[in-house]
Amino acid sequence: MTKEREADTAIGMKTSKKTGMETRAAGRATTIIGIAGGTGSGKSTFTNRLKRAFGDAITVIYHDNYYKPHDDLTLEERRTINYDHPDALDTDLLVRHLEELRAGRAVDCPTYDFTQHTRAKKTVAIQPSRVIIVEGILIFQDARLRDLFDIKIYVEADADERILRRVARDIRERGRSLESVINQYLTTVKPMHYLYVEPTKTFADLILNSGRNDVAFDVMKTKIEALLGKD
């Protein structure tokens, strides 16, 4: 990391001295939580733990579903796109959707076909809820998104752990070959991580050393319970 930030540490969890966990969420009907981190860092693990704990009481939106469509390109051309660059994502649409949800209006969330490298035809209806979690590697890179988040969490892990998780996921879930995953990691994933992802760690209210950090999970579970219990 190129820049150190002032933080308190408690069993692998760092909290900003300017955390917005109490002040920014106060008085809002909808609280939006951003969970970021590099590929394979454990952010999905942490997000999924929260989703399992609260079920339909909270909403989870994945930035990955907002990759731009490329139906005008061949599959081979789509495979060469740098999907780890901010320009690969339709963040404008995500911002509009979060604004609509905060205003109490439902949205149709896009979905993405990772085997074909383009947006799928299917959409998912998302209803407004008291707590919304947004997960993605680049969600803190855009100032408009950062301003929408009431709580910002960054999950980090060693690079060797992240690449192993990335390989396992892409082969198992996205139909990729080992060679293609390694090539993508070395040419785009790794350099983009240090250029666009890791620097956004400084914006986080909480920095976790693992998606399985039980202390951090208990803190967020208690926080969400309090938010859901508000009149």
| Shape estimate | globular
Question: What is the CATH fold-level name?
Answer: Rossmann fold
Low-pLDDT runs:
1-27
Helicity range = 25-40%
User: What portion of residues belong to β-strands?
Assistant: 15-25%
Order of helices and strands: EEEHEHHEEEHEHHEH
What's the CATH C level?
Alpha Beta
What is the strand tally?
9
**Secondary structural class:** alpha/beta
Individual helix count: 7
Q: How many discrete domains?
A: 1
Spatially, the strands of the biggest sheet line up as 1-2-9-8-3-7-4
What does this structure look like?
38% of the residues lie in helices and 21% in strands. The protein has 231 residues and is an alpha/beta fold. The protein has one domain: P-loop containing nucleotide triphosphate hydrolases (Rossmann fold, 3-Layer(aba) Sandwich), CATH 3.40.50. The strands form two sheets. The protein has a seven-stranded mixed β-sheet, covered by helices on one side. Mean pLDDT is 85; it is low at 1-27.
